[in-house]
Each structure stands twice: as structure tokens, then as C-alpha cells.
Design a protein that fits this description.
heterodimer, A: alpha+beta, Glutaredoxin, Glutathione S-transferase Yfyf (Class Pi), Chain A, domain 2, globular, transferase (chain A), Glutathione-S-Trfase_C-like (chain A), EC 2.5.1.18 (chain A), Glutathione_S-Trfase (chain A), Glutathione_S-Trfase_N (chain A)
Chain lengths: 222, 222
């Protein structure tokens, strides 16, 4: 038992990717166990490893943590990425929840039927450019600081850079009307721990391809 | 300006009900401004009160808080219903995410066509009795305490009671195989603040009826 957090999930982004981002940004090394077959998944359930029979699972500090938000909140708290007091935490939570609503659309996109894909892509673009990105553009403009909350790197900044890059993969010019976010993206991408995570060979996972989707659907019997 | 928290939402359960439960359980009096027509929502949006153009909105401690989880986390921490340390908070978060998933299945039922609704109702009953309730039954059995986490009332207990009552509305004998949850239900319902909330005339909202659903569809345009 190495003492490093251990992540159990499919070998792809899905709901585990924000966890990988947060650990990486905090400079925390971690191990990964990849779910590749239905049998592996059923064994995890049978052995009582998964509180609600679901992954993500993160083993850390003697706990088997499940539920993405619970995992992320714990990590943010542990690694000082959750603000200095209750009010900063509230701001971080609000921002993270908004960003999560956007990234949820991207997460579900590959599972939508082929005839719905074009419409869903339009929805992602519309929501990103008219509901979510304007909020963060305004926040950064108003306080003129490098980070969203409390002039210090927090979970909210890590979620935002992840979301920006994920949306850009689908809509390359999505930041064209958001100069503050463009600068934010550059700044965050150059932070040493994040820069390292963005390089080849890191635990960062590629966007889901058809093979990945098929495998997930097989393992989860979707 | 201290004042009471002010809740903005239609006059029904939806995503605001868990917030009403938590405030009530904490013994916190609050005000409500009901969104009754589309114009009420537009006014909030145009006034810049809604960070992501959505309700729930809770005005509390000088903040205009949105995003249900952010609001609930803030209230839980402020009123000492979030455990004593990071690890207890993680357990509370995990439990709450589970009951959120369960209640999240029940909430959209009235919006669904009757054949989908029947299928989903069966799934809810299956999930409640094989995925969710066994977890809480076991937690109570393992430590033998009155409350889920840290031998003290927390957000997790309040949320579980809400979920139990909501599931019972779907199937009255849903707890038949869960003796400890039956006892838990009795105990938590008798906590003075919660007992008061469960009485007629409190701010607790009834299950949605057709009139409420029709109005909500009009207000939110779906």
C-alpha cells in the first residue's frame, strides 16, 4: 500500500477526469485501476467496494470515496483549494456547480443518438457562450485578479480550465469573445503542475472515442 | 443587514424543497417570494440576480446564492450540520449524493408520459430497495448510533428523512424490509424542529399536482 490515492474507473475521461485534474493541479501523484470488463465491475460490487454500486471510486486516507462531488470536495478541502472561509467556499461551490452543468452536457454528448448530435452540439455552444463563459469573464474582469476566488488558486479555477479545453475540442473558436478567459487559459496552462498534466504521458485521458463508449456501455449494461 | 434568508422559487417542492427542509431542521426562519408566472422569472433574470439564469435563488448573508448543492453546503456548514472535520464531511457528502440521486429519480415523474412514468416508478422502487436504503440501513446497524455520521444530527440525516418520505409517497410500505430505517424515520421526525416542519401550516410544500406542473412548464418554457 503506497499511500498514494488510487482511482478506479474506465480508462477514459468520464466522471473521473475532474478528479485527475484536481489531484494533478495539487501536485499529488496517484495510481489508477482501469475497469475493462463487466466481470471486474461485478467483482467490485460483490466485494462491497462501491457504496452505491457505482464508479468513480477513490481510495484515499483509509476511505473508499464514491460520488464525484464528495470526492472532489474532500480533495479540495485536503489540498487547500477550497478558499479560506465559508463564504469563499460558497463562491467556489457555485462556480463549480455551474461549470459542472456545462461539462455534464459534454459528458453525455457521445451517448446521444446520432440524429440528436448536431442539436446537442449547438446547445453546448449556446450554453457555453451565453450562460457560463460570460459569468467567469465578468468575474475576472471585475476583480482583475488571476484566479476566480480569493486571489488564490482554487478548485473553481481547475474546473474552469478543464471545461474551457473540453469545449474548445468541440468548438475551437469558442473563446473568441472572451479575452479574460483567453488570458486565464494561458495563465492556468502555464502553472507548473497543470503544464505537466497537459503534456503527453500524463494521466490525462483523451476525448472519448467510439471504442471507449462501446466498452463503457458494455460494462454498465446500458 | 442580517435578516432572514429569502427563497425565490415557484410555490412547490422542486429543487428548493431540500433547502426548506435543511433551514427548518436548523431552526432557521425564512421568507419566500414565489415565482408564479414567467414575468417573475424574467424580472429576476433581467435584474442580474441569477448567476446562471436559474433558480433556486437564496438570498442569505449578503449573497445571492444559486445552485442547490452550493446553497445546501453553505447552510449545513453555517448551522453545524456538516460534521466535525473533513472526513465526516466526506461521509455526509457521500450519503447526501446518494439520496440526491434517489430523489432526483422521483422528481421528474409527474413530467413524464404515463408509460415512461410506470417504468421509472418500478426502477425507483428497485433502486430504493436494492441500491440506496440498504446502505443507510447498514450504516445505522454497523455503528448502532441514532444518526448517520459522528453520532450527531447532520445534513445527511435530514436529507435521508426527506428521501424516505418522498419514496413512501411512491410506495407506502417501501421501508418494510428496513427496520432500522423505520426507527430512524420515527426518531428524526420527532426532532422538535423537524416535527414542526412536518405539521400542517409549515413551509413544507405538498407533492406536485397537475396544476403546479402546468404552471411550472409555462414559467420555464418546457
Amino acid at each position: 500500500m503506497s499511500g498514494k490515492p488510487r482511482l478506479t474507473y474506465f480508462n477514459g475521461r468520464g466522471r473521473m477526469e475532474p478528479v485527475r485534474w484536481l489531484l494533478a493541479a495539487a501536485g499529488v501523484e496517484f495510481e489508477e485501476k482501469f475497469l475493462e470488463t463487466r466481470e471486474q465491475y461485478e467483482k467490485l460490487i460483490k466485494d462491497g467496494e462501491l457504496m452505491f454500486q457505482q464508479v468513480p471510486l477513490v481510495e484515499i486516507d483509509g476511505m473508499k470515496l464514491v460520488q464525484t462531488r464528495a470526492i472532489l470536495s474532500y480533495l479540495a478541502g485536503k489540498y487547500n483549494l477550497y478558499g479560506k472561509d465559508l463564504k469563499e467556499r460558497a463562491m467556489i461551490d457555485m462556480y463549480v456547480e455551474g461549470i459542472t452543468d456545462l461539462t455534464q452536457m459534454i459528458l453525455m454528448f457521445p451517448f446521444s443518438p446520432p440524429d440528436a448530435k448536431e442539436k446537442n452540439l449547438e446547445s453546448i455552444k449556446e450554453r457555453a457562450t451565453s450562460r457560463y463563459f460570460p459569468v467567469f469573464e465578468k468575474v475576472l474582469k471585475q476583480h482583475g485578479q488571476d484566479f476566480l476566488v480569493g486571489n488564490k488558486l482554487s478548485w473553481a479555477d481547475v474546473e474552469l480550465i478543464e471545461a474551457i479545453l473540453a469545449v474548445e475540442e468541440k468548438i475551437p473558436a469558442v473563446l473568441s469573445a472572451f479575452p479574460q478567459l483567453q488570458a486565464f487559459k494561458r495563465r492556468m496552462s502555464n502553472m507548473p503542475t497543470i503544464k505537466k498534466f497537459l503534456q503527453p504521458g500524463s494521466p490525462r485521458k483523451p476525448p472519448p472515442d467510439e471504442h471507449y463508449i462501446e466498452n463503457v456501455m458494455k460494462i454498465l449494461k446500458m | 443587514m442580517a435578516g432572514k434568508p429569502k427563497l425565490h422559487y415557484p410555490s412547490g417542492r422542486g429543487k428548493m424543497e431540500s433547502i426548506r427542509w435543511l433551514l427548518a431542521a436548523a431552526g432557521v426562519e425564512f421568507e419566500e417570494e414565489f415565482i408564479e408566472k414567467k414575468e417573475d422569472l424574467e424580472k429576476l433574470r433581467n435584474g442580474g440576480s441569477l448567476l446562471f439564469q436559474q433558480v433556486p435563488l437564496v438570498e442569505i448573508d449578503g449573497m445571492k446564492m444559486v445552485q442547490t448543492r452550493a446553497i445546501l453546503s453553505y447552510i449545513a456548514a453555517k448551522y453545524n450540520l456538516y460534521g466535525k472535520d473533513l472526513k465526516e464531511r466526506a461521509w455526509i457528502d457521500m450519503y447526501v449524493e446518494g439520496t440526491t440521486d434517489l430523489m432526483g429519480m422521483i422528481m421528474p415523474l409527474p413530467l413524464q408520459p404515463s408509460d415512461t412514468r410506470e417504468k421509472n416508478l418500478a426502477l425507483i422502487i428497485e433502486r430504493a430497495t436494492t441500491r440506496y436504503f440498504p446502505v443507510y440501513e447498514k450504516a445505522l446497524k454497523d455503528h448502532g448510533h441514532d444518526y448517520l455520521v459522528g453520532n450527531k444530527l447532520s445534513w445527511a440525516d435530514i436529507h435521508l428523512l426527506e428521501a424516505i418520505l418522498m419514496t413512501e409517497e411512491c410506495k407506502p410500505d417501501i421501508l418494510s424490509a428496513f427496520p432500522l430505517l423505520q426507527a430512524f424515520k420515527g426518531r428524526i421526525s420527532n426532532v422538535p424542529t423537524i416535527k414542526k416542519f412536518l405539521q400542517p401550516g409549515s413551509k413544507r410544500k405538498p407533492p406536485p399536482d397537475e396544476k403546479y406542473i402546468a404552471n411550472v412548464r409555462k414559467i420555464f418554457n418546457f
